[in-house]
Amino acid sequence: MSSPSAPVSPDCAPVTLRSNRDEYRLGEMGPLYEHGAQEAIAAGVDLQLGTRYLGKVSDHTYLIRNDAGRTRIQAQYIVGADGARSQVARDLGLDLNTHLLVGAERVYTVTSAPAEPAFHCVIDPSIAPGYLAWVINDGVHAHIGTAGYARRYRHGIQQALETFSRTAPGLEHQDRHPQQVEKRGGPIPVGGLLPRISCPGGLLVGDAAGAVSPLTAGGLDPCLRLSDHAVEILDSALTQSEPDLLRHYDGATLRRKFRGRLAMRHAFAQLRSPTMAAAAFTGLRTRPGRAAAKRILFSDKSFPTPPTPQDSFGIRPAAPTTVGA
Ligand SMILES: Cc1cc2nc3c(=O)[nH]c(=O)nc-3n(C[C@H](O)[C@H](O)[C@H](O)COP(=O)(O)OP(=O)(O)OC[C@H]3O[C@@H](n4cnc5c(N)ncnc54)[C@H](O)[C@@H]3O)c2cc1C
Q1: Which terminus of the chain has fewer Cβ atoms in its 10 Å neighbourhood, N or C?
Q2: Which mutation among 207, 212, 216, 221 tests ligand 1's pocket best, with the greatest number of atoms within 8 A of CB?
Q3: Is 220's C-beta closer than 6 angstroms to any atom of ligand 1?
Q4: What domains, with CATH codes, occur in the chain?
Q5: pTM of the predicted model, to two decimals?
Q6: Which residues of the chain have pLDDT under 50?
Q7: How far is 98 from 125, CA to CA, in rounded Å?
Q8: Listing from the earlier edge strand, what are the strands of the sheet with 61-66?
C-alpha cells in the first residue's frame, strides 16, 4: 500500500501526509499463518495445533492439553509466543506487559478501490481514547478498526467500532451493507520491549516480549524481526549446548532505542477530550508538526534492528540444524 496517510480530527478536517514511496503493506493473516506453518513443518517442526499450554510443573517440565488430554512434556528451552498476557513469561519469571491498549478490527469486502491508496487515521478520544481509529481500503478489503485504553471507552469498544464504521472516511461509493469476512481483537502492549525477556530456561517473542512499536502499535514486523534474533540465539545455544548464551537475548539494550517513542506515546495518551485532540491537530497543521508526523508514520524505525550473535557477542556461527519438538 502506498502514499498518503490522512489523520482526521474530530472536526473532520483531514491533514494529508504524502510519502514518495510505498509505506504500508496489508497482511492477509490467514495465508500468512498457513505459509509460516508450512515453512515450519518443512524445517522439521512437529506442529500440534489445538494444543494449550497449561503451565510449568518443574524446571524443564511443562503441562499441555490437546485432544488426547493433559500431557507432561520435557523441553530444554521454552519459547513464549503466547501473546500480550503471556503465561510462559509468568512461569519463567520474566517481565510482564503492564501497559496495554485494547484493539478491535473488522475486515469487509469492498466493491471498488479508492482513487489513491490511503491509510486513514482518526484521532478522536470518543472513538479511540488515547490512540487512534483507522480505515484502510486496498480495493479488495476494507479494514476498519479502533484501539485505545479499555477503561476510557464510555460504551465499550464494540459500540465505538459500530459508531466509527458508520462514519469512517475513505469508504465513499461502497456497498452500504458490506460482507464482513474477518474480525480480530485483543490487548496490544504499548509499554515498549520488556527488559528481561530471557533466562536459561527459555525466552519470549512477539507481544509476549512487548515487541510492539509503542507509538504505532504495529506488532507484526517487530515480532518477525525479534523472532529471527531469537532463532539465532537458540540455534547457537542448542548446537553449542550452552544455555548461558540466552542472556544475550536482552530486551534492556534494545529498549533504550524506544525512549523517544515511549515519551510520545505518553503524550498521545494524554489526549482525553475532543478539544485536546483538536488542539493537537492545530499543531499537526504546522510545518514542524507535519514533519514530525511524517517521521513517525513514514520512518523505518518502528523497531530497532537486533544485533546478530556473531557481530555483537563473538558467538561462533552455528552449523545448520533442524530443531524438532
Ligand atoms: C485489532 C488489532 C489490530 C492490529 N493491527 C495491526 C496491524 O495492522 N499491524 C501490525 O503490525 N500489528 C497489528 N496488531 C498487533 C499484532 O496483531 C500483534 O502484535 C501480533 O499479532 C503479535 O503476534 P504474537 O504471535 O506475538 O501474538 P498473538 O498474535 O497474540 O498470538 C498469540 C497466540 O498465542 C495463543 N495462546 C495464548 N495463550 C496460550 C496458551 N496458554 N496455550 C496455547 N496458545 C496460547 C493465542 O491463542 C494466540 O494465537 C493489531 C492488534 C490488534 C488487537
Answers
A1: C
A2: 207
A3: yes
A4: 7-12+100-187 (3.30.9.10), 48-98+191-261 (3.50.50.60)
A5: 0.88
A6: 2, 315-325
A7: 21
A8: 52-58, 61-66, 69-74
